[in-house]
């Protein structure tokens, strides 16, 4: 049977990294098995669902390269199909109308809690042989309840948690349609998974309590349930469940903050799955290695410092041209139009950056005037070095504009003045780049505009 997985988010809030991990694993499993990955938007919560949240889901998945083979399917567009299955279940006696009001149900639950029982529907309106049902109240629209099996248990082999078994006596008769006829979540999910031929459901463990109910509906409809894998929760840096309420960022914000898609995929993959001790790997390696047997059972904790480290490693592995394209977008957002130097700038600085945003900060220095701090000028630009600065400026006016020729000019200046390299290099860096710390000075100058370099150095001859 061909593997078919799905990601089925509710667009009731902006999708964050904890949510998107529940897309990454089913996507990876489908890709690793030559299967299909289906995107389904569970938008039946009309009050809380929003198009903006849908857009972030689609945008975030596209950015991360989590491409889907089918969809997005929207549950609100499948209402006729749900009603068709409900009618079928009514005909087969699998559901029944329940006229218990909300007030009656609340009172029942209160009595149960007072007597230290589990609060649950007691089957008042469930038809049984020889049972007399209460009189139908006038003007009340009933809910439809599923006839959950009596006795026995529901069991499944969870790919993360192992064998789970729930007694049917713990499960009451689930409402599958509200008084106005709209179907409920657990019912819609089962119909969708049947129609979309889902073979593996990989989702958060907050759904574990839904699973036995869904399995019973599958079997009532004559279908075998899919394989389940319930992923442990992702915690934020404070150890709380990651959520928008607890400060989680929309996944697209990481893109805007300069993280690479492959690095985020790498980091998220390790946030609940492992391949030995491998920390850094490519997307291709991840898909080659991924399986459901090495999913972790413990809650994983998000660590932005670790994400930044992973991103830094991926930046070193990424081609200069790819980085230049990303940095160019960020420079244009600042009103800077980069030129052909940008790939070389990225090559020179990428090893000291943990995001493309930081890399763009370095690149900006080559396109806009810098303003050295008074502290750096005072520390590095003393009177003794000013003659050497002027000499170097004059030599740079006429030499070939290559790292080799620039390096030769620097060495000649050092020889003529008797200065050590740091005594000259530090003030030159401060004047040209606004900071005393840069990569190799000859390479930095070669990527800079000659006229601008000479102008800044000549300015350095004058007292601060």
Automatic annotation (TrEMBL):
GO terms for cellular component: cytosol. Catalyzes the attachment of glutamate to tRNA(Glu) in a two-step reaction: glutamate is first activated by ATP to form Glu-AMP and then transferred to the acceptor end of tRNA(Glu). Residues 116-131 have a biased composition (Basic and acidic residues). ATP binds at residue 244. Keywords: Aminoacyl-tRNA synthetase, ATP-binding, Cytoplasm, Ligase, Nucleotide-binding, Protein biosynthesis. Residues 327-457 form the Aminoacyl-tRNA synthetase class I anticodon-binding domain. GO terms for biological process: glutamyl-tRNA aminoacylation. This is Glutamate--tRNA ligase. Belongs to the class-I aminoacyl-tRNA synthetase family. Glutamate--tRNA ligase type 1 subfamily. CDD domains: GluRS_core (cd00808). PROSITE patterns: AA_TRNA_LIGASE_I (PS00178). Gene3D superfamilies: 1.10.10.350, HUPs. The keyword Cytoplasm applies. Residues 116-139 are annotated as: Disordered. It is found in: Cytoplasm. Residues 2-309 form the Glutamyl/glutaminyl-tRNA synthetase class Ib catalytic domain. Pfam families: Anticodon_2, tRNA-synt_1c. GO terms for molecular function: ATP binding; glutamate-tRNA ligase activity; tRNA binding; zinc ion binding. A motif ('KMSKS' region) lies at residues 241-245. A motif ('HIGH' region) lies at residues 9-19. It comes from the Bacteria. The gene is gltX. Its EC number is 6.1.1.17. InterPro entries: aa-tRNA-synth_I_cd-bd, aa-tRNA-synth_I_codon-bd_sub2, aa-tRNA-synth_I_CS, aa_tRNA-synth_I_cd-bd_sf, Glu-tRNA-ligase_bac/mito, Glu/Gln-tRNA-synth, Glu/Gln-tRNA-synth_Ib_cat-dom, GluQ/Sye. It catalyses: tRNA(Glu) + L-glutamate + ATP = L-glutamyl-tRNA(Glu) + AMP + diphosphate. Its main location: cytoplasm.
């Amino acid at each position: 049977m061909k593997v078919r997985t799905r990601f089925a988010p509710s667009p009731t809030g902006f999708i964050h990294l904890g949510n998107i991990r529940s897309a990454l694993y089913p996507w990876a499993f489908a890709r690793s098995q030559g299967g299909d990955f289906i995107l389904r938007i569970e938008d039946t919560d009309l009050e809380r669902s929003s198009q903006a949240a849908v857009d972030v889901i689609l945008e975030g998945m596209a950015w991360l390269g989590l491409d889907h083979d089918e969809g997005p399917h929207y549950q609100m567009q499948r209402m006729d199909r749900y009603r068709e299955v409900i009618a079928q279940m009514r005909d087969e006696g699998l559901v029944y109308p329940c006229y218990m009001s909300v007030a009656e149900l609340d009172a029942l639950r209160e009595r149960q809690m007072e007597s230290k029982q589990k609060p649950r529907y007691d089957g008042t309106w469930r038809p049984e042989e020889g049972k007399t049902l209460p009189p139908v109240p006038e003007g009340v629209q009933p809910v439809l309840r599923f006839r959950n099996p009596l006795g026995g248990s529901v069991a499944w082999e969870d790919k993360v948690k192992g064998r789970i078994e729930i007694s049917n006596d713990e499960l009451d008769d689930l409402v599958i349609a509200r008084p106005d006829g709209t179907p409920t979540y657990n019912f819609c999910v089962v119909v969708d998974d049947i129609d979309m031929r889902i073979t593996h459901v990989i989702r958060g463990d907050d759904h574990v309590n839904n699973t036995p109910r869904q399995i019973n509906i599958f079997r009532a409809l004559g279908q075998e349930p899919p394989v389940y894998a319930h992923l442990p929760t992702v915690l934020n840096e404070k150890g709380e469940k990651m959520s928008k309420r607890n400060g989680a960022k929309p996944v697209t914000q990481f893109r805007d903050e300069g993280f690479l898609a492959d690095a985020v995929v790498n980091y998220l993959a390790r946030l609940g799955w492992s391949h030995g001790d491998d920390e850094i790997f490519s997307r291709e390696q991840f898909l080659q290695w991924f399986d459901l047997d090495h999913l972790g059972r413990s809650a994983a904790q998000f660590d932005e410092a670790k994400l930044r480290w992973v991103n830094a490693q991926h930046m070193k592995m990424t081609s200069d041209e790819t980085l230049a394209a990303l940095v160019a977008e960020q420079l244009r957002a600042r009103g800077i139009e980069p030129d052909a130097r940008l790939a070389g700038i990225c090559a020179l600085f990428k090893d000291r950056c943990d995001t493309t945003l930081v890399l763009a900060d370095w690149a900006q220095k080559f396109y806009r005037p810098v303003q050295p701090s008074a502290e750096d000028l005072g520390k590095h630009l003393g009177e003794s070095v000013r003659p050497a600065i002027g000499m170097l400026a004059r030599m740079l006016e006429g030499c070939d504009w290559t790292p080799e020729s620039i390096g030769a000019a620097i060495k000649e200046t050092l020889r003529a003045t008797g200065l050590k390299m740091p005594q000259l290099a530090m003030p030159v860096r401060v004047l040209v780049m606004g900071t005393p710390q840069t990569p190799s000075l000859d390479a930095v100058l070669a990527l800079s505009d000659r006229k601008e370099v000479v102008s800044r150095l000549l300015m350095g001859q004058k007292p601060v």
